[in-house]
Write a structure and sequence with these properties.
Chain A is an alpha/beta fold. Chain A has ten helices and 13 strands. Chain A has a nine-stranded mixed β-sheet with strand order 3-8-9-2-10-1-11-12-13, sandwiched between helices. A two-stranded antiparallel sheet of chain A has the order 4-7. A two-stranded antiparallel ribbon of chain A has the order 5-6. Chain B folds into two domains: 162 residues, Rossmann fold (3-Layer(aba) Sandwich); 61 residues, Alpha-Beta Plaits, CATH 3.30.70.20. Classes of the chains: A alpha/beta (287), B alpha/beta (299), C alpha/beta (143).
């Protein structure tokens, strides 16, 4: 099974739109959404069935037992994350700031603090004649990288007999992106022709190159700025990356998304362009 | 031209406040909705303002402002250093560390900076006081001026795991200021976003008129409610037809401050890294109006 | 041969056997000799610990699997503490490799996912050293 990861650097360039199109075009039996902070793929894959859900445990969170607490305030002084606050004569841990390091638990003379397991998100697995792995990180959590790994692991363990798996990635260059990069066969970068888009694209290219993963690039909404589109194509030449095509801005994309469908179910300019990008990408993936 | 941009004030009984002195955070559940576009133009439209870029992984505001008179400040966290002559191999530090940043091999402690979360636990707990701390740079804060705007940009070094310490430092800088401050937040609702809105008096949630936009608007909607921040929504890139995000706001009684129709002129200006309010008077008028209509500190 | 010489010869043979005894660790998916080799080192559920002289195997739970980050470091510490000399694995991250180096643990690359094949290949000197150490995943839980 070959794994294709779709990244962008900048948010909103069209990763999920392209990913869903590729899934339909390739009839992939395995796909995943690694944007665990803001997963969107499930909205257009028309999941009528309920997924199998598993709690994802993140770093623990500390809790202070007010009955045992002697109000010495030592925990507040020693907490490196400003997670302990005094409120009406009581010391409390702010769960959103707590990183579960255990320092407060270790230094409390009154043994009033304990670190408890904390549910930081939920893994979901849809299984039908396809396998779709996704997850949702709980608001305020900080351990997205490991959850992304769990999403990919679910896909691996499902042992699906399919040639290609499509993975919808997350924006940025940090934690979740790096986790999604491991073990993939190729990355497709969906860029947009704006200065911010180009700047972010450079950072994601350098991240992917650190992991020595084959990378190809396409431009979405290319006709919103032709000059910048050409800049991107030149950059690809400079970085020696294959450029796999341009996709025009098409208002049909919004219509498709709002109907919970993939764009390729519509007959339009964007669909034609995406089909061409798809063909070129798969060709390179299979060589 | 003004026909395609219109202002909606759904809750007319708000007091119209002087726009100065407020700290306004701009966030969205989803990337690419226009946080930076709104933040940059709000700051530029004000007579005097501070723009703070908290999207430390992919800071973009400075691309538009091109600030001058730049100064840099390095942001560091503390990581442990072992005095091997004092270490007796008790391994208290190794067993304690929840991040596995220490190992004891060949009678020596090894420290792994890149997984250390700087909690200070090993330093505090070492019975022989063999561990002390050193600084490790994780990012930078760039400060500069762009006409009427003081531009403060947080930048995380690639490979670092968390930008939260940079946001904490940015908040320290923002808090004592009395000028209008616009905080451009990272996308999503993870811990770094929570840190970015900590000192905000008001939150503007930016949403796209798509199913994705609406779904992710829901996440930040929950976030601002959880932290008791007054908020309003700006709908961006609106086109003809259904607007799930608008329906969401109506359903939940959320004030819609502004609806900006998709406009290729604005798109072009933005994609060329230009600031709309500095290019055309009508955009400046629009954002000034938006500023003036923001409600006061309590709802 | 005198009695002393006999004793010396027995002691010498025993010492030689001890010196030649190798303790090998292999990351595995299940606690069984039929199990497959696990593709991850830091996040393997178990380690097979095999002694070449006794040909005995024991299975070690890998406590690093629950870690948010630094799993390779913790897993490496555990096998160092076990007195392992050889690690046979498909992959190893840079942090784990850094832990294993001062402990003089040699890293070999697996030939396939069968435990028996790999042990046999090692015994016959057919395994090659693992030299492509991958970059750390920096708290990202990597696999």
């Amino acid at each position: 099974m070959k794994k294709l990861l779709i990244l962008s650097g900048k948010g909103g360039t069209g990763k999920t739109t392209v990913a869903s199109a590729f899934i339909k075009l390739s009839s992939a039996k395995a796909f995943a959404d690694c944007d665990v902070d803001a997963p969107n793929l499930h909205l257009i894959m028309q999941q009528k069935l309920e997924p199998k859900k598993i709690d994802y445990l993140g770093m623990g969170k500390a809790k202070i037992d007010s009955e045992k607490c002697v109000n010495c305030g030592l925990c507040q002084i020693k907490c490196s994350f400003d997670a302990i606050k005094k409120y009406k004569e009581c010391y409390n841990v702010d769960a959103y700031s707590c990183e579960g390091c255990g320092v407060c638990e270790a230094i409390c003379y009154a043994r009033a603090i304990k670190v408890y397991p904390d549910i930081a998100g939920e893994l979901m697995l849809y299984k039908n004649d396809f396998t779709f792995s996704t997850a949702q990180l709980k608001m305020g959590s900080g351990t997205s990288g490991k959850l992304v790994t769990e999403v990919k692991k679910q896909l691996d363990l499902a042992e699906i007999n399919t040639k290609i798996a499509i993975i919808d990635g997350s924006p940025g260059i940090g934690c979740p992106v790096i986790a999604s990069l491991s073990g993939v066969d190729m990355v497709l970068i969906v860029s947009e022709p704006s200065l911010s888009g180009i700047s972010d694209m450079k950072r994601i290219i350098s991240t992917a190159q650190k992991f020595a993963v084959k990378t190809v690039v396409c431009v979405n909404k290319y006709d919103t700025n032709l000059e910048n589109t050409i800049k991107i194509e030149k950059l690809c030449e400079e970085f020696e990356l294959d450029f796999v095509g341009r996709i025009p801005f098409d208002s049909n994309v919004v219509k498709a998304v709002n109907k919970g469908k993939s764009i390729v179910e519509f007959d339009c300019l964007a669909t034609d362009a995406i089909k061409s990008v798809f063909d070129k990408t798969i060709n390179i993936l299979n060589t | 031209m003004a026909s395609y941009l219109y202002l909606m004030i759904s809750m007319p009984d708000f007091t119209i406040m002087e726009e100065s002195k407020m700290k306004i955070a701009v966030l969205s559940g989803k990337g690419g909705t226009g946080k930076t576009f709104i933040s940059v133009n709000l700051a530029a439209a004000s007579p005097k303002a501070i723009y703070v870029d908290c999207d430390v992984e992919e800071p973009n505001g400075h691309i538009f402002f091109r600030p001058k008179e730049l100064t840099y400040e390095i942001v560091s966290v503390m990581t442990p250093v072992v005095d091997h002559s004092k270490c007796n191999g008790c391994r208290t530090c190794v067993e304690f560390c929840k991040f596995n940043a220490l190992a004891y091999i060949n009678k020596k402690i090894m420290i792994f900076d890149d997984v250390c979360h700087s909690c200070g636990g090993c330093t505090i707990l070492c019975p022989e006081k063999a561990i002390s701390e050193k600084k490790k740079a994780i990012g930078t804060i760039q400060k500069g001026i762009s006409e009427n705007v003081k531009v403060i940009t947080g930048m995380l070094n690639t490979g670092e795991s968390s930008g939260v310490p940079i946001i904490k430092k940015l908040n320290e800088d923002i808090l004592p200021n009395t000028d209008l401050t616009i905080i451009d937040c990272p996308p999503g609702s993870a811990c770094i976003v929570i840190e970015s809105i900590k000192v905000a008096d008001y939150c503007i949630l930016v949403a796209e008129p798509t199913l994705f936009g609406c779904h992710n608007l829901n996440m930040v909607y929950k976030l601002v409610q959880l932290f008791n921040k007054p908020f309003g929504v700006v709908l961006n890139k609106c086109i003809e037809g259904e607007n799930p995000s608008e329906e969401f706001c109506t359903k939940h009684g959320i004030p819609i401050l502004l609806q900006i129709k998709f406009c290729s002129d604005l798109g072009r200006i933005n994609s060329n890294g230009l600031i709309a309010v500095r290019e055309k008077q009508e955009y400046k008028d629009l954002f000034s109006l938006l500023l003036k209509s923001l409600p006061g500190g309590t709802v | 041969m005198t009695y002393v010489h006999l004793l010396q010869s027995i002691l010498h043979k025993r010492m030689k056997a001890r010196i030649n005894n190798m303790k090998i660790a292999i990351p595995v998916d299940d606690k069984s000799i039929e199990s497959k080799v696990c593709i991850s080192f830091g996040r393997t559920p178990y380690f097979l610990i095999y002694e070449t002289d006794t040909k005995q195997s024991v299975f070690l739970d890998n406590n690093a699997i629950a870690s948010q980050g630094g799993a390779g470091i913790k897993a490496a510490q555990a096998i160092v503490d076990e007195g392992v000399n050889i690690l046979i694995t498909p992959r190893c991250g840079e942090n784990a490799a850094e832990v294993l180096k001062p402990a003089n643990i040699k890293l070999y690359k697996t030939v396939n996912d069968s435990i028996e094949d790999n042990i046999e290949a090692f015994t016959n000197g057919k395994l090659s050293l693992l030299d492509d150490i991958h970059a750390g995943f920096h708290n990202h839980g990597g696999k």
